[in-house]
From TrEMBL:
It comes from Flavobacterium aquicola. SUPFAM superfamilies: OmpA-like, TSP type-3 repeat. Residues 610-731 form the OmpA-like domain. CDD domains: OmpA_C-like. This is Thrombospondin type 3 repeat-containing protein. GO terms for cellular component: membrane. Residues 1-19 form the signal peptide. One of its GO terms (molecular function) is calcium ion binding.
Amino acid sequence: MNKRILLFIFLVLAAKANAQSYMGYIPDNYAGIQGVLFNPASIADSRFKTDINLFSTSSSLNNDYYGASLFDLTKSSYDFDKDGVKTPTKNNGGIIYSDIMGPSFMFNIAPKHTVAIYTRARAVVNLDNINGELITRFSDGFNGAESFAPISLGNPQAVGQTWGEIGVSYAAVLWQNKQHFLKGGLTAKYLVGGINSYVDGDNLSAAFIQTGDLSTSQLVTTGSVTIGSNPDFIVGNEDVKFNPDSNGFGADLGLIYEWRPDYESYDLSKAKASDNNFRDLNKYKLRFGLSLTDIGYINYKNLRQDVYNIAGAVSAQDIEDSDFDNIGDFLEDHYGAPVTTYKDSKSNLPTMLHVDADWNMYKKFYLNMTGNLSLVDKQTLNQTYTQNTWMLTPRYETRWFTFSLPINYMEYTGMQVGSGLRFGPLFVGSSSVITNLISKESKGADVYFGFKIPVYEKKFKDTDDDNILDKDDKCPTAAGPIENKGCPWPDKDKDDVLDKDDACPTVAGPVENKGCPWGDADKDTVLDNVDDCATIAGPVENKGCPWPDTDGDSVLDKDDKCPNEKGLAANAGCPELDADKDGVLDKEDSCPTVPGPASNKGCPEVTQEALKELKVQARAVYFVTGKAVLQNADKGQTDGRLDAIKEIIKNYPNAKFSIEGHTDNVGKAASNQKLSEARAKAVMDALIEKGVNPANLSYVGYGATKPVASNKTPKGRAENRRTEVIHVGSIYEGKL
């Protein structure tokens, strides 16, 4: 068998990887319109205002039979049979998948509602239960093959389908409560069929008889083969057509839950205009998605089905000479005409269940886990399907750039590692490129790329932070109110009252007077704002009011000591008084509280009775012998005498009294003189201490010069040692 035939086998033994588009790109929060293919809920609350796809495509070619290095395949010296790594089993198989997205777009119609419309062309080829061991037997051609007894080939099958889609998606935020956020989406699809073809073997077996000659060597087979296809494919038209008569409907459903522990940071009630309701931010810490895609089928009209009984033998030469451009012609030529029927046939879409979890590990670093589970029974005739896949994708993501590193495990083919890049409008990647480059046994290859026009949600500029966006702000660098188009109100007179509120915008004035200076209506130099009598002039001291004169005596209340009683200015506004009713006005009365004659300036005159009493009391005051010290022995008696003297003197506040000290003639005259003066002074000091006005008192000592009895007898000398209180006149006039 030549290399062309083996290459054909490699191409059709496509991988049992899932037939999913844009592997590794879909988890990106900036996947935009492509994200709707995986989960229609993804476009709700997206990072796009709108996302317009111009062209994008995703294709995969994988298998579990043949492995090779991508670099090796490009070498001219590459030997397909010898350099590749074959893994033959009794049920090899695979998938070829291609997806082309045409003009498509998504846009937000409201903060919580998003729609998308897309166009798409898809093709998938499934092969299953292909006996790879049989293929390996003939890998070097029929000449080198050995004879073998009949072996069971089971029920091999292949299904191919192309179709076009027009999808309309709607997604919305369904529920939001603090850190919990749920959104859902629905896609309705109108499907137009293209090529639909299938080959199904039933209880096939094969044996080979090697004679050394291709013309006599034979491949002996048993069983039946069913081939179904729409008419366009049967007649050999190589162009892929979409027939409106073969159509159907499909749907995708999806839910996405986001856990937003920092929900208070995105409180819309506290958002400023520049925050744009936080639409530019990924707000989740964890995101979980669940979706069902490709629910539905295409009804192909008048599909032809041929059933061939292939019990018989075909020479190796006939197989070698055939180009297999039409396998039906080959079978009919060698096994006879088939049993042919025409009928409408429904071919399902490759329905899948998708689950994914996305973790925002730190700032712009994410880790995604995705699972794709096929829900189609692949044993059913003419059903396209996918295989199960798990993928772990770490990525670094910003608005204009994403780098991803998808690590995936695909049923039958095992682990593959790829890489993806997004630069704004351009994205390109592969879920297997790293494995393709470094592994000699890579059994799969895929690639995706696309061009789009992304219009991102973003935080608006508000340079002066006045809650008016720069695009609407006439003064973007100076904060101002929206009423003034974002410009600050002027204040021409610099009085801190804005011109819009200033009644005197060119003259400085206080806020309390609407920016105008205070007036002075009564011209009293006290401004009206602090003038209690703004229309009547008054002094500053009385807050601009004139001083009152309550009693009308021409003495202003502020100077009038009797403001409620008329008086004389000379008497501080008070009338003249005679408190002691002695006919002498208080102003002329030296003793205003004690009645006395005018001749004595209103003070009482000292009576003879008072003088006699003073004489008695004074002579009863005794001293220590030879000293000017009042006797302690009769201190109580002495105090009583002094108190009596004090009371008499206080009755005559205008009188002047002299305290006279006398001695006997015993001793020297000089000593007696000093002693008499000291004793007189001691009495005066004692009276002053008891409260007598010092102005009423004086003292004098006479020694022994004024005896009142003979100094020759003890009795006479005792009488001469005395103290007397003498009325000597008025304190205003001196001695009488």
